[in-house]
Structures are given as structure tokens and as C-alpha cells.
Amino acid sequence: MKARKIILACILLVLTACGMAETEVPMSLEPNINPPNQQVDDFFAEFVSEDTPGGAVIVIQNGKILHQAAYGLANLEEDIPLTTDHIFHLASVGKQMTALGILMLVEEGNLNLDDPVGNYVPEVTHFGEDFTLRHLLHHTSGLPDYDGNVMDALYARSDTPTNEDLVAVLSEMTELPSTPGDYFEYSNPGYDLLAVVIERVSGETFPQFMQSRIFDPAGMSHTFSLPNDKRRADPLVAMSYTGESGTPEAYPYDNLDNLYGSGSIYSTTADMALYDEALYTGKFVSQATLNEAFQPAILNDGSTEPYGFGWELEEWNGESYVAHSGAWLGFNSDYVRFPGRHLSVIVLLNRDYDYPDDPRIALKIAEFFLR
User: Fold this and answer.
1) Strand order, beta sheet including 319-328
2) Can you tell me the distance from the alpha carbon of 102 to that of 327, in angstroms, rounded to the nearest whole number?
3) pTM of the model
4) 224, β-bridge pairs
């Protein structure tokens, strides 16, 4: 940088000697003072200060970290700064891990994507042969989200319902609101039901399966699924905040936290980078099997929906990428992956207010590195 300034000064002297002292130095000669890493820092500075909740970000390409940083506070009451080691709730970003668990069991010959769900969870056999695992993965099963009726039935069973409570509620439903395959309708119960399938087939609880089959093999030492005592015991678990910038409120738990599959996983940006790289290596499933997760849903009328198995299928400047976001408690997460460039961005926030998300926050950061 010092040598660059000396060169610019010499050019100015030459211009002065030629009677051109007022002429501006050409833009191409100006030093680059705003590289992508600085752009990320400046971007977060627009909505996070050192005394507000904030978040962490990691940008990785070809297995190497291009940028990793944390901004704001992990705990307002205790004035604890966020670090890149802090642990956040992934919310619905965890859906792709549930889908990955299903694909593992498929590759092992224990499941078929087009099998009726009732083959593995007999309590829902009455939904018919067309109520398949593939439909659940694509959110096209006809199963509604946690609407009033489902919620009322769950809370009638327990103040803190579990997946088995959900199965009991579904067993009492006489029919689905719509025919499987007719529509795309985002369904958290569908992914919670997939977690039950994993448990019934593997013989492990969902948290155990995630730990033994995904987190441990990938080296994700700070990642876990609820229910788990680490959530309260680990001082690196960030507090999340909801509300408004002037009066944020801590949001430590929810009565639905014992439901898993649709989103119950805590992780760090570094652990997510390990997971991202493992997807390229065949550590979990073969690339041929994994590619199933990146195919759009095909509806009964032949039209398609740009949603795979826990992945949104998107485009940026004509280039394909896959992504998913999540929101639960006061946490927000966003994960964008450009497989063709081997580039990914993971953003984990411990606030659900006053942050830029149009376009999605991870894509805004990815753009700094794609230009």
C-alpha cells in the first residue's frame, strides 16, 4: 500500500509539471480500499452495534475460509460479546439434515422415497398409499402446517408436546386437507413426521441419529439436536432476542421445543462449514443420492415447485444455487450454497428484528465474493 501511494504521488508530480495539477487521478489507479471482507464488516455495521444482539458469518470456498467474523452481543444482560465459537439455533436450516438422514437410510436399502409413510409409521396408514416420504420431503404431502386445529390437539395432549404426541394427533385425523402431490404447502409437521420415520427405522432417537451419523462423522463438535442438556449447560449457547431494536426481549425457550425434525438443531458457523464441505466428499451419501435433494417437486398436474429435500432451488444472475433460511425463538439463519463455484455463506443471527433480508441476507454477502 505504501509503494502504491508513492507511485500515485509521482504521477501527480508529473501531471503538475505538465500543467495538469487539477486533473483527477484516473479511477483505475486508485487503491482498492473496499475488498469483500471489509464489505461484509461494513454490511453488518449497518444494523449491528457493539451493544445489540447480532450474529456470526462464515464464507467458504473450496474448503477454505474466506471470511469469518461475529458481531454484537451474545447476551445483553451479561454484556457478553458474540464470537465465532458461539452456538445458534439453526431453525428450519435443520430440515436438510433430516432429509439427509432419510437419504442415508434410502442408500442403505432401508427405505424407498416413494414408499407410503404408513409402511414405517402405521398410525398414519389411513392417509393412503400416495402419502409418501417423497411428498413429505417436498412439502407436497397434503399435511398442513401447525395450524389452529393441529395446535389445539397437540396442546390438549401436553403443554410441551413431542413427536409421539404429533403421531397420536395425526392418527386421529380422518383425512388430509388436500390430495398428496396437488400443492406445495410448507409443512413443519411433515418434517417432524420424517424424524419419527428415522427413529422407527434406525432404532435410535432422532438426536442420537443426528449425532452418530452426521455431527460426529463431520467433526461438528459443537452441534446438537434438542432435547439436549447442552442447551442450558454450555456457556457458548447464545441468547436469542425478539421484539424491536429499542426493547429487545430474551426468548430462551418455547413450548414446542420438544418437537424435532422440522428444526431443532444448534450449531456454529465453523461446524456448518465442516458440514458444507462434507456434502462434497461423499461422507454422508454418494453424490448421486445427494443430487435427489436438489431436484424440484413435481406436482400431479406436471408443474414443478423449486423446492428439493430441505433446499430451496434458486438462481442468481442465471446461476443456480441452493439455500434455506430459518427462524425460531429469536434466532434467524440463512445458508446459501453455490455448488458450481464450491462457495457457501452461512449467517446465524441471535435476533429476529431489524436485519436486511431482501434479497436474503446470505445472498447479499455472497454477492461481495461473486463479483
Assistant:
1) 64-71, 55-61, 343-349, 331-338, 319-328, 312-316
2) 23
3) 0.90
4) 266
